[in-house]
Amino acid sequence: MVREKITVSTRTLQWKCVESAADSKRLFYGRFILSPLMKGQADTIGIAMRRALLGEIEGTCITRAKFEKISHEYSTIMGIQESVHEILMNLKEIVLRSNLYGTCEASICVRGPGYVTAQDIILPPYVEIVDNTQHIATLTEPIELVIGLQIEKNRGYLIKAPNTFQDGSYPIDPVFMPVRNANHSIHSYENGNKEILFLEIWTNGSLTPKEALHEASRNLIDLLIPFLHTKEENLNLEDNQHMIPLPPFTFYDKLAKLTKNKKKNGVEIDFY
Asked: Which residues form the DNA-directed RNA polymerase RpoA/D/Rpb3-type domain (predicted)?
């Protein structure tokens, strides 16, 4: 068994990239450490960072495709090897990088015979394809394939309605997560009193693992900043048209029941 040796900070809290690799244009890997941490802190940070990496980073995806004169998603087009459904699944796999806010339009217009790949997508200048070789369709005859596309930047995973939109286009369930996977592990030293946090990050190529780490950290900090305010914000609830009904708060009911049971057993409870 080979033991890995790395140099870590013993006084000042610091992070460091200890390994990075690019297996392909659509698979990047990075491993990072944060140290020194007190006992229990590595797990606290690791769990929060993993959730932020997987759920709080925005990605760009194709979310809708419009074909000409297609009756339903499982139709076949004369002169095209793939069905409409297979083309939609191929479009779903296209990895994009962008400075987009909201949605934009793109298109494909290709004449066969030949292969249709990601490089045939006509994009606005602020959207970029990570891997131009990704396959979309195979044209076996001299026909024209025209597809209108909608591109969106968002986060998480969305399930679109199964039916078509009013304009006859077909929804694509997008996965807006640039981070494919994230793991954390902990190494203890000094008799378990100090810890080193290890973070492993795999991305789809639209972000490097280091960029993903920075963005997840920034987004996590933004979520916690409101708690740093010493006073609660004075919200005008009377003008709020989006009031949310809350379930009954049963703390005092449970407290009264607990106190009653304790008194029956001859135990007094003091609350400070």
From this structure: 29-230
